[in-house]
Design brief:
The protein is mainly alpha-helical. 84% of the residues lie in helices and 0% in strands. α1 (3-30) packs antiparallel against α2 (37-69).
């Protein structure tokens, strides 16, 4: 299995876990309890920066290859790039809701929860489409040379948007969040 596909699938698992954490904390918030705001900030910060900076560029590169090999197949698929942009906008909106909550600005709790659900549903549907459709189709169509090229790019530490440096920064921050749950 190409490393880039393993990484993408693993990242989907991590993003889903971060959404679970947010969901649990925001339920506390919704019930007028005291959520862990540091945990919420850390999770949303990771979900705001990393998919956009690091996960989506890899998928966009796989998609580009697919479109070169089989334009008709790629054009029948959901518009990955457009969904990534929409996800980024929704995440930004939710992150700014959370900022308002933390700085104790006036904001309706229902609106915050609604925006989280909108974002989580979209992200979930998007990842499901990638797992069920996009990645299996790419695995069928791209050649071993295509995957070698994509893997090499993904492993290049000098590529700030795509590289190994972002990967290790993500892992460190993600593991820290998981540890804080157990600690
Ligand atoms: Fe994606
Ligand atoms: Fe993805």
């Amino acid at each position: 299995m190409p490393q880039i596909v393993n990484d993408l699938r693993q990242e989907h698992g991590s993003f889903a876990k971060l959404f679970d954490i947010l969901e649990r904390q925001l339920t506390i918030f919704h019930n007028n309890g005291k959520p862990d705001y540091d945990l919420i900030s850390d999770a949303i910060d990771l979900l705001f920066h990393f998919p956009h900076r690091y996960h989506h560029p890899k998928e966009d590169a796989v998609f580009e290859k697919l479109a070169q090999r089989e334009p008709a197949v790629a054009s029948n698929m959901a518009d990955l790039k457009q969904e990534h942009d929409a996800l980024h906008d929704l995440t930004q909106k939710f992150a700014s809701n959370i900022e308002s909550v933390i700085s104790e600005e006036e904001i309706a709790r229902d609106e915050v929860i609604e925006n989280l659900h909108k974002l989580a549903d979209f992200q979930h549907r998007h990842m499901q489409m990638e797992e069920d459709d996009f990645l299996p189709v790419a695995l069928k169509i791209l050649t071993p040379e295509d995957w070698d090229e994509l893997d090499a790019r993904a492993a290049d530490a000098n590529d700030p948007a795509f590289g190994a440096e972002a990967k290790s920064e993500f892992s460190v921050r993600y593991e820290k969040i998981l540890r804080s749950l157990n600690g």
